Amino acid sequence: MPNPTPQSKLIHAHVWISGRVQGVGYRYATVETASQLGLTGWVRNLPDGRVEAVFEGAREVVEEMLRWCHAGPPAAVVQDVKVEYEHPEGLRGFEVRRFE
Known about the structure:
38% strand
């Protein structure tokens, strides 16, 4: 049986979310939502108050996740979502990372 998302169909979205997105459960809601959608990647808080995330998966699923990012969890107030598309890295799982 063929792989449902061959490597050529995977996309990699690098995302920066700004607004009231720290201290409102944004990272953990992102992990939960991305995991439910079957995406791989990571999410972390940045020192400037933004949240940074990477999503890898099928284009339509990543686009669904990006739509979710514009709203976030109930306590969040999202002002802007910037997206850059990059080459997929073949990430596994979805995790919260710490800013180094």
